[in-house]
Design a protein that fits this description.
Layout lengths: L3 H11 L8 H11 L2 E9 L5 E4 L2 H4 L7 E2 L4 H8 L3 E5 L2 E10 L2 E10 L5 H19 L4 H6 L6 H9 L4 E3 L3 E8 L7 E8 L2 E9 L3 H20 L4 H16 L5 E9 L4 E7 L5 E4 L2 E5 L18 E4 L5 E5 L6 E3 L2 E3 L1 H12 L5 H15 L8 E8 L10
Antiparallel strand pairs: 1-2, 1-6, 2-3, 4-5, 5-6, 7-8, 8-19, 9-10, 10-11, 11-12, 12-15, 13-14, 13-16, 16-19, 17-18
């Protein structure tokens, strides 16, 4: 790919004032300079079921035909975060994952008239991903392109509240999801990796709709404020609960889990404010729930909470979830912790990236429910990978 570095440098230099809706055309033109016959950007829908082409129709908010994530080569590149190459009429087709760090942004399709070298297009895909992320921060067009149906006001508020669905560094990976994607109201999760500590939280505000979304927004905002202010975990419950009660009194509440993971030792510290106990997982098997005396939900109490400590080993997983995950029925059958354990262990056998594990688990749960939820349901899966942080090298 002669002149690749020059083309990529010119792409970045020329993109500073590029309007977001012109990124697909911009990528196509520069891909052609590098020998492509066609270049198409695909983004995943909010349900993470389809890859949707970023066409003019999609950018205008009109319905477009997508490809199933579970049953397509584009989906395989997305699920495995790896390049997928195949032959097509007159040449080769390459699908490359578009990644923001380790968060999955979408997939880039490159069609060439001769055999394609995936490695030669990796840097190009990285530039396209960065353009999508940077331009997406100040436009609605990518949001509209990812929707498969209208999104409720509460859900729109929640999606703006959430961090990226996954993050990873050499020591820890975190992945989460909320359902129902287009109607979620009161569930949220949050995290931060600060030097040697991973901060973890998951929330479930009482009720549904906009009221629940407003409560979740205050709870997450109070949590971030306390975390960034250096409040230790054993005092954070009181700090967040006090801030929440100041806004809503003592008649409303949010259940939560608040936690920290020491990335050098694997020492996990948790405070349970009315949530189901999280699970400790090792070797693709659930070891046990992490039990401890639960505190009152945030906003209802200010007594010092019980703090639970658990030592993790490299490769161990922590599963945090809201009660909506196990608050489901199908006729006379109730989805309980045993069902969840079986589904978790089944999906872990697939040996896929953590974000994909969460996506598959979520879809398995939604399939059991017939695509419906009585309550918001959120999951967050955390893997302590290693105590070592490699040296930065040039």
């Amino acid at each position: 790919m002669a002149g690749k570095d020059t083309v990529l440098a010119r792409m970045l230099d020329a993109a500073h004032e590029l309007p977001p809706w012109l990124v697909p055309e911009f990528a196509r033109l520069h891909a052609e300079k590098l020998g492509a016959v066609r270049a198409t950007i695909y983004l995943q829908d909010y349900d993470q079921r389809e890859m949707l082409p970023l066409t003019d129709e999609a950018l205008a908010g009109r319905e477009v035909h997508g490809m199933s994530i579970d049953d397509s080569e584009a989906g395989r590149a997305f699920m495995q975060t790896t390049a997928v190459v195949s032959e097509c009429e007159g040449g080769s087709r390459l699908y490359l994952p578009l990644l923001d760090g380790t968060a999955r942004v979408g997939v880039l399709e490159i069609v060439t008239a001769k055999p394609v070298d995936a490695e030669q297009w990796t840097a190009f895909a990285a530039v396209v991903a960065e353009l999508i992320v940077a331009k997406g921060a100040h436009t609605d067009v990518y949001f509209l392109a990812r929707r498969r149906r209208p999104m409720g006001l509460a859900a729109e508020m929640q999606w703006r509240l959430l961090p990226p669905l996954t993050v990873s560094d050499p020591r820890v990976t975190i992945a989460g999801v909320v359902e129902p994607a287009y109607e979620v109201g009161g569930d949220a999760f949050d995290y931060a990796i600060n030097h040697g500590t991973a901060h973890l939280a998951i929330f479930d505000a009482m009720g549904h709709g906009v009221d629940a979304s407003v409560m979740a927004t205050v709870a997450v905002g109070a949590y971030r404020h306390a975390r960034r202010g250096g409040v230790p975990l054993n005092e954070m419950y009181t700090a967040v609960g006090t801030a929440f009660a100041a806004e809503f009194g003592h008649e409303r509440f949010v259940t939560a889990h608040l936690g920290t993971l020491d990335l050098a030792t694997g020492q996990l510290v948790l405070v349970n404010a009315g949530h189901p106990p999280p699970w400790h997982i090792r070797g693709n098997k659930v070891l046990h729930p992490i039990e401890g005396a639960p505190a009152l939900p945030l906003g209802l109490g200010d007594a010092p909470p019980a703090v639970v400590q658990v030592g993790l080993e490299p490769g161990d997983l922590l599963l945090l979830y809201s009660d909506g995950v196990v608050d489901a029925s199908r006729g006379d059958e109730h989805y309980d912790e045993e069902h969840l354990r079986a589904d978790v262990e089944h999906v872990l056998q697939d040996d896929v990236p953590l974000a994909e594990t969460v996506r598959r688990l979520n879809h398995r749960l939604m399939k059991w429910r017939g695509g419906q939820t009585r309550d918001d349901a959120s999951l967050m899966l955390v893997e302590w990978r290693s105590p070592e942080l490699p040296r930065v090298t040039a």
